[in-house]
Specification:
- With about 230 residues, this protein is α+β, with helices and mostly antiparallel strands.
- The protein folds into two domains: about 120 residues, no CATH class; about 80 residues.
- It is built from seven helices and 14 strands.
- Strands 1, 2, 3, 5, 6 and 8 form a six-stranded antiparallel beta sheet that branches. Strands 9-10-11 form a three-stranded antiparallel beta sheet, with no helix packed on it.
- Strand 2 and strand 3 form a beta hairpin.
- Helix 5 crosses helix 6.
- The chain is globular, with a radius of gyration of 18 Å.
- The protein starts with 6 loop residues before the first strand and ends with a strand.
Length: about 230
């Protein structure tokens, strides 16, 4: 019987993929694979980035709470962790906002290699993009296919049935990918799609596996995953 886990340890991932640790480290350090840590009831601030007319960027908090769940590491922190054995982290990446960080009296968290995990969604996304199914032995169908109205989309073996605004977002990101300009400002895309919301996670909250379709760079930009 296989337990439906929300995340996996690095030894589990290495065994599933039958690769050496140095290969997994390479993937993580080059942002081809996102590693996460489990946060247990720590004060986390979620927020978005806004850019001024003169090009300066500043953060706007949208939520502060005692958070219990997974947060993704920044690439530079992964790089330092594997070289020094540990790293002190203040900022994280997350699909629910442009950023996540500690707030209040808690300023940072020391993370070691044994703390690293891989989210199920990230594992499935990576396997779909690379065209293999790990221990399952399944070979998902690759490529990107969309109906004329983009309300039915198949991306690397996963099918998504989208609402009108969601479909417009995918249409815009697909067009950007086709012209070689994959990364797009999330807020600009949502505005162009006619969304009243300025957060991609809110627009796609009805699709819990939406990160398999749309990838964030953690700094407010988005692209179609693996297209």
């Amino acid at each position: 019987m296989e337990i439906e886990k929300a995340y996996f340890t690095l030894p589990e991932v290495l065994a599933r993929w039958s690769i050496p640790e140095v290969d997994l480290v390479y993937l993580a350090e080059n942002d081809q694979l996102r590693l996460s840590v489990r946060i247990l009831n720590l004060p986390i601030e979620f927020g978005d980035y806004e850019e001024t007319d003169d090009g300066r960027c500043y953060s706007i908090p949208t939520e502060r709470s005692s958070f219990n769940g997974l947060l993704d590491l920044q690439v530079q922190d992964v790089f330092q962790l594997f070289r020094k054995g540990e790293v002190t982290v203040t900022w994280f990446r997350t699909t629910r906002a442009d950023y996540a960080c500690f707030w209040g009296s808690r300023e940072s968290l020391t993370i070691r290699k044994s703390d690293l995990v891989l989210r199920r969604e990230e594992r499935d996304r990576f396997e779909a993009v690379r065209g293999f199914g790990g221990a399952s032995g399944k070979m998902p169908a690759g490529g990107f296919h969309a109906s004329a109205d983009y309300q039915v989309v198949r991306c690397h073996g996963h099918e998504f049935r989208l609402g009108p605004i969601q479909a417009q977002v995918v249409r815009i990101l697909h067009a950007a990918a086709q012209r070689g300009d994959q990364w797009q400002s999330g807020k600009a895309v949502l505005s162009q799609a006619g969304s009243r919301s300025l957060k991609m996670a809110d627009v796609f909250k009805s699709k819990k596996d939406w990160p398999l379709l749309i990838e964030s760079n953690g700094r407010g930009a988005y692209r179609l995953a693996g297209v």
